[in-house]
Structure formats: structure tokens, C-alpha cells
Amino acid sequence: MFVRTATTYDLSAMAGLHVAHLPIGFFPRLGTGFVARWQAAFLDSPHAIGLVAIKRSDDASAETVVGFLVGTTDRRAFRRELLRRHRGALIRHGLFALVARPRLLATFLRCRATTYAARLWRGRSGTPTAQPLEREEPTGELTAVAVDPGTRGAGVGLVEIYLDRCTSLGVSWVELVTATEPDSAVRFYEHTGWTWLHRSRTRDGVPVAHFGRCLATTDRA
Ligand SMILES: CC(C)(COP(=O)(O)OP(=O)(O)OC[C@H]1O[C@@H](n2cnc3c(N)ncnc32)[C@H](O)[C@@H]1OP(=O)(O)O)[C@@H](O)C(=O)NCCC(=O)NCCS
């Protein structure tokens, strides 16, 4: 098994893993087509990192994507770029996905349409619920990571490689949000040196934990 930078050829496998194993939030419910378009923005950005974990068949003739990670090295810059360069394509993909899913469309119109429309129209990213004020210096954000259940715990190391890349790019603080339900990744992050920041809920009411990690020697507590 090894980890490499993701390419556009990996997007459909990455989106499949995301929808299957990270079903929290609105995006995965829009399906793999939308998620792949959203993940493509990470592969295309100087402010983001996309990684895949690859397993080779015994005779080395075939490779399978068994995990992926997308994250940013400067989440503010990435959000600005996402809206500037990918807004139109994401709206188009999102609308197609919603039209094909009438029940989801009804939920969207009831709960999110106003917020999303205002955010996209203004070209600003908005601030997630209960998020503390942004730090002035660039903050990395581990946006999504998932490993195929059959490969978990085998030391794939996607998160460590993402953190190493952030460190080498001079990023000194990284955050993430993860669900707190049983079997969630909370124990993984506690075990691997992340610090609890606070708890909140998603717009759908799912309880989530916010974690942070200092990557520099300077004291930022
Ligand atoms: C979180 C996740 C990506 C971790 O990937 P992984 O490939 O299993 O992690 P690794 O094998 O690299 O594990 C690294 C270390 O964490 C430990 N670890 C892995 N899962 C753990 C868990 N659930 N609880 C405690 N420790 C855990 C490993 O034992 C290993 O420790 P070691 O280095 O001391 O041996 C994977 O469990 C997953 O896909 N979960 C479902 C999706 C998810 O919740 N993603 C997070 C959303 S932000």
C-alpha cells in the first residue's frame, strides 16, 4: 500500500469512498457526480491537497484506490478560489443532482436554499455555525478523509502525510470537523495527537467535534 497525490483519474473512486463512508452533511447526498466535481476543486488549487491510498494486487497488475484525503493549506484562500473558479460548475452539478432527487430538493428548499443562495450570490464563503473567529495566519483544514473499512487500522497514514505536506509548506495550524457518533473518527483523532476545540451541530442537527493541531514549534495555545 502506498499514498500518492490524487489526480483527476482518481476522482470517481474518491467520490465513491466519500459517499459510502462519509455520509455526513449535504454534499454526499447529492451523489458521486457532485462530490467528484467538488473534490476536483481541491486537485486544481494551490491552496489544497488531494491524496489517495493505493493497494496493488498481488501480481502488481492492478491498483485500487482504498482511501482518499482532501484538505486545504489555507482554507480562506481556498474558499475564495472555490467560489471564484468553481461556483458555476458546482451550482450546475448541484441543480442536476437535486432535480434527480425530489425529496432531497424539498429538504434543500426548506432548510438551506436561502443560506446557500445568499452565500453563492455574494461570492463569499460565510462562516459555519458556531465556528470561532478565523485566525489571521493561514489555517489548514482537513476537509475529508476516508479509508475503505477493509483497510482501516493498517497504517495507511493519509492524515500524517497531509500534515507533513502542510508542515513543509509552512502551515502551522490545522483544523477539522468530525461527527461524534459512536464508531466515528473521534478516537482516531484523540489517539493521533489532535486537540479538542469545541462541539457544535451541523445544519441537520448532527453533533460534531472540532479538532485542531499545531504543526509548528511556536506556542499557539
Ligand atoms: C479515520 C480514518 C480515515 C483513519 O484511517 P486509517 O487508515 O484507519 O488510519 P491509520 O491506519 O493510518 O491509523 C493511524 C493510527 O491511528 C490508529 N487508529 C485508527 N483508527 C482508530 C480508531 N478508530 N480509534 C483509535 N485509534 C485508531 C491506528 O491504530 C494507528 O495507530 P498507531 O500508529 O499507534 O498504530 C478511517 O478510520 C476512516 O475512514 N473512518 C471513516 C471515515 C471518517 O470518519 N473519516 C473522518 C472524517 S473527518
From TrEMBL:
Gene3D superfamilies: 3.40.630.30. InterPro entries: Acyl_CoA_acyltransferase. SUPFAM superfamilies: Acyl-CoA N-acyltransferases (Nat). It comes from the Bacteria. This is Acetyltransferase (GNAT) family protein. It comes from Pseudonocardia saturnea.
